Amino acid sequence: MLGSAGASLTGEQIENIVLDFGEHTEVAVHTVEEREEVLAPEAFDRLTANVRARRTGAAAYPEW
């Protein structure tokens, strides 16, 4: 769909993420496409606008 949105974390980097368990309980890594399945349409539009902005270096806005 939108392609890479910047740097990617390696498996080792993901495994070494340290959480404050008072604030978070888990780390989850998903593709943009996987997020479409669980986000409300407006939230997914904001996410894809963010991905476009990061990819192009220009402002991007949700398409609603």
Topology record:
Elements: H1 11-15, H2 32-36, H3 41-56
Structure description:
- By secondary structure, the protein is mainly α.
- It has one domain (11-56).
- The chain has three helices and no strands.
- It has helices spanning 11-15, 32-36, 41-56.
- The protein is extended.
- The model is unreliable at 1-5 (pLDDT under 50).
> What is the number of domains?
1
Quick one: biggest sheet? none
Could you tell me the number of beta strands? Answer: 0
Class from helix and strand fractions: mainly alpha
- Which residues form runs of ≥5 with pLDDT under 50? 1-5
- The share of residues in extended strands comes to under 5%
In one word, what is the shape?
Answer: extended
Order of helices and strands: HHH
Give me the Rg, rounded: 14 Å
Straight-line N-to-C gap: 18 Å
Number of helices: 3
